[in-house]
Amino acid sequence: MQSRLLLLSVVLVSVTACSRQEAPPAAGGAASPATLAANRAVAEALPLAEAQDFEDARRGFIAKDDPLVIRRADGVPVWDFASFGFIDGDAPGTVNPSLWRQARLNGQYGLFEVVPGIHQVRGYDISNMTLIEGKSGWIVVDPLTVEETAAAALALARKHLGDRPVSAIIFTHSHADHFGGVEGVLPADPAAAERIPIVAPLGFIEEATSENVLAGVAMGRRAAFMYGQPLPRNPTGHVDTGLGKGPPSGGKVSIREPTVIVDRTPQELEIDGVRFVFQYTPESEAPAELAFYLPELKAWCGAEIVSHTMHNLYTLRGAKVRNAVKWARYIDDATRRFPDMEVVFASHHWPVWGNARALEYLRAQRDAYRYVHDQTLRLANEGYTPREIAEQLDLPSTLRTRFANRGYYGTVRHNAKAVYQAYFGWYDGNPANLDPLPPEDAAKKYVEALGGAAEVRRRGKAALDAGDYRWAATLLNHLVFAEPSDAEAKELLAKAYDQLGYQAEAGPWRDVYLTGAYELRGGERATLLDPKRAIDLLRHTPVASFLDSMAVRLNGPDADGKRMTFNFIFTDVGETHVIELENAVMHHRMAEPVPGADATVRLTRELLIKLGIGDAGLRDLVMSDDLQVEGSRLELLSFLSLIGKPDGRFPIVTP
Ligand SMILES: [Zn+2]
Q1: Which of 41, 142, 316, 645 is the most exposed place for a label (fewest CB within 10 A)?
Q2: Of 276, 271, 118, 141, whose CA–CA distance to 197 is shortest?
Q3: Longest Cα pair distance anywhere in the chain, in angstroms?
Q4: Segment 330-341, tens digit of pLDDT
Q5: pLDDT at residue 10 is higher than 50
Q6: Distance 175 CA to ligand 1 centre (A)
Q7: What's the 117 CA to ligand 1 centre distance in angstroms?
Q8: Which residues fall inside 5 Å of ion ligand 1, going by CB?
């Protein structure tokens, strides 16, 4: 029962990581002839030699740390860019050449001048830090994911541009790779730090602290697949996320309350002597987001609603689907409000210069999302179901030939399914899919119907030999779910995943497949969840969110028939929450203590955080000076023992 408390599942899947596996099990090996042919076909179909993106990604280069390895105070690397040094020259057979091109582009790192007055540090994290020259110092846009990378990026800028102070900070949106490093750019003196204005979109703190609270454990596990967390960095492993190299490993995440809120379009503000015209762009790439224009510099910052990839309407780690229509409208709005823009820069990737090119780029980004949205609904209205839609949908030639619209991070296939999901949900309307058997039961029956394990193995091998990897994966997945101890079946399935990974144009698809293969071969199960590194974020998380996360950990069947009431008085934040257990549901509300409760508990939010991150267990709770109980300690313990702690390493590729 020790730590069965509310391990708050926070955060930022993108933030933390367990140590990389140094000795992975037997790797995937070579590309098959079918994969070589598929990757050759990609190379022939796309103008991979086109130089414009490379020119743009290098333009304005000033300096870089070489090699670039950013370490924590204890010496552990947080950001090891040098480990991607193998990405050079032509694509190896084991990497889709279009993804390889993107990985090479994301390999252009350092300090760059965008235009006089705007600099960017790129490649010091998965995201960009932008520095806008104000009257008294730099306005920092998006201080990266962790303090260590943010501090290194700012140090690079200071070394080459002069020792300017930070005069303001802008968080473009509520994803951690755009605010988590804030402490790394604020002055050490707290009084000086307090004086620095922080601009963020309405809803920023709520979204930043709560987005992953309820579902974070499962998201963290799925994110390890999406980012290929346990994979080595080499031509048969992780090469790129499509958006950037990957999330930093470990490092300290922090957050600051904004002091200036952007909540409308247009919203004009002068920040450190620079004129800004903000657009409020919520429910697009992030639930709380903004973009802005700098009229004097004719520069538009597209935050993350534009980038050099088709972005995710749905992210494979799992999240609520995003609104394609609003997303497209915000980009359209920028082209109409700021038709004189001369440069577009963003929170990931490199800028686009020149009025005509910038506007064309934006219109193509806009239409990529809009096309997927509109055509998915056209096909749905003709009766096609998600997999049928995804199979036939591709961008029109005018969009798909532009590299910035290609699916390096999001893909047309999974985004089409996201649009379907947004309108229709999980059910495709076919009665056979209303209540099918769960995977293990179905697998056993499929294997039996196909003539037994040996026959399925034979057919699986035949599909592998034919290069029919999607079908091989389906067949062999049934076999593995029917016979999880069948080592040969697992190796065959891993081989199918290897080749699917080698062919994938999207970084996350490659990582998902290769991580699946890695685990089938006995690799340790990874998760990208480590709340200890996000303690600062937890301190900004409302008590009610912690209680919500407790409610989703309540073991319903064990709680059946129990009725309890508690007053939780949080002495450090001066809040009282009444907790009631009834019908196997935990309710909570901020209210005056109710008489007749089973117990009244005085505790601190800090203690709750410690419990949440596993720094304290139930014993500590009972013994702690930070906790006093009036009433029945036994009932309290009995209640707390109903709150489970998922271990976050559940199986995915096996039952
Ligand atoms: Zn981002």
Answers
A1: 41
A2: 271
A3: 76
A4: 999 999 999 999
A5: no
A6: 6
A7: 23
A8: 127, 175, 177, 304
